[in-house]
Design brief:
The complex is a heterodimer of chains A (about 250) and B (about 400). Chain A is an alpha/beta fold. In chain A, about 35% of the residues lie in helices and about 30% in strands. Chain A is built from eight helices and eleven strands. Chain B is an alpha+beta fold and about 400 residues long. In chain B, the strands form three sheets. In chain B, strands 3-4-8-5-7-6 form a six-stranded mixed barrel. Chain B is elongated. The model of chain B has no long low-confidence stretch (mean pLDDT about 90). The chains are: A alpha/beta (about 250), B alpha+beta (about 400).
Amino acid sequence: MTDAPLIVIQDLKKVYDMGPHKLEALAGVNLSFLPGEFAGLVGPSGSGKTTLLNIVGSLDVPTEGSALVMGRRIETLSHREAARLRSRHIGFIFQTFNLLPVYSVYENVEFALLLLGDPPAERRRKVMAALEWVRLAGRARSRPSQLSGGESQRVAIARAVVKRPELVLADEPTANLDAENSHNILRTMEDLNRELGTTFLFATHDAKVIEHLRRKITLVDGRVTADDRLTPAARAGQGGSAPSPGGRP
Amino acid sequence: MMLLKLALKNLLGAGLRTWLNVFVLSLAFVLIIATQGLIQGMNRQAEQAMIATEVGGGHFQHPAYDPYDPLTLPDAHGPIPDALAPFVAAGQAAPVLATQGTIYPEGRLYTIVIKGIDPGQKILNLPTSFLAGPLKSDAVRVLIGTRLAKTTGLKQGDEFTLQWRDAHGTFDALDAIVVEVFSTTVQTVDVGTIWVPLERLRQMTGLSGQATYAVLAKDAPAPAGAAPWVFRSREDFLSDLRALVKTKTVGSSIVYVIFLALAMLAIFDTQVLSIFRRRREMGTLMALGFTRGRVIALFTVEGLLNGVLGALLAAVYGIPLLSWFARTGWAMPAGVDSYGFAIGQRLFPAFSAGLVAGTTLLVLVVTAIVAFLPTRRIAELKPTDALRGRLS
């Protein structure tokens, strides 16, 4: 890890206009993440996890405050600049996999590279390498409808990491998977984090995911209530944790 | 190129829904081209028949002659201008003398125009050779068309009384005999008209060496002038016909619009449904780095490709079908005369390259517009809403 933070979030607020009343999804969040982290936003439904993830992923903009992601201020990016940031530097993994149904496994993974303009041979090499990582090279020609939930999510992981992004954002990636598949998926992401140095940021309330996190940020009602660095012992369920120096709960 | 490949992939991936749309579009292509081809064929057939039977290369007319006003006929005759004489002598112009007359077949009275023409002329496609030769009696040899024959009840070999006024306004009458009943698609040489030998009519009227108009041969070079006679070109004659065809095309345009609207409705419906059903996919595309503009372009290209595939499918079955149609034609109903066109027993459609290219271009442009219209909603779509399957 280097010392320069990958993400710096300052006094971040997000308010949704719900007609007669307003909903405050984020109420002044301050956080920072270093490259290579394997961190998770944890909390009950409606705590603001997905909203924060969306803002970091430049899919949404804050109402107030600042989100600096890889040196770019999300709140000032144009649609085109935000799209460029996502296409080159950020990978997404969704709860519902979001694979494109008419494309094969290979094409779904390749899709992420099409926007980068890589030559076909280079694309093929990268796609096959990504499918090897998630152990799905043998299913390259399959359609998403022919895959199990675990396989679909592994394809989504391959699609997220094939372009070697600095940051992968995963929103409830194991919510639709059984325990064994969840474990396999998380092991795969841990391996990728270790081997490629990719930063992973999760939004989850799944205990199975939390077990694998090295940093757990707890959100409640749009506020950070805890920011813990988890030691291997703590992750094994011993309960030991250390407050994060990077977070400002 | 990437968008095109993706759009094609998406379109083909949609399976039956796509092919139903493509089939409807191809049907619209074929039907539009077929109806327009019929109009073009009708126009062409009518023009060719008019040129061959009535117009030739144009008419030099006596200045007093108005073909639409029979009351001008008593004054509409004169010696053939000197400039035209060599053309007449060379068989490149056929003089026609026209005068009003009355016939009395089986005691009934019909007002007609008597036209005298040289039996040996080769310019107009009329069987004038039947007018040649003497008869045993003093009767006038007469050629009539099937329409006049039907109206008057006359048939070949029938005799009737023919009355006219000579150059001095004196009434005179003779027996006439129908030597031939000809069939033509051009009504103006048939309805209310009888054809007699030119020299005989000149004798009957006392208008020796005179004519009302002269028809130029189709390929004859028109004399610079034949004053005081005026030249009415082939285009002048055809412009009337074209104006008439234009009024008839209004009906076919309605059919055109209905076919096109049906096809476009299918595209529009598919696009709206597609945008509604594929919101999550749009969100995924945006998460992967597509801008909204690119998503709009992708969906528009998908819609447009319906048109392209429709054109290709139309070519597959439309080309042989329309070629066969152009060869065999379309049998016209018995009452086709009432259309006011020179249409034969069969109508042969004409499919020009311009018609096919123009129709294809029009359908593709309209398809692109119709495909684009519903996608404007994507411009307001937030990626986060799209990922949740919602429209902003």
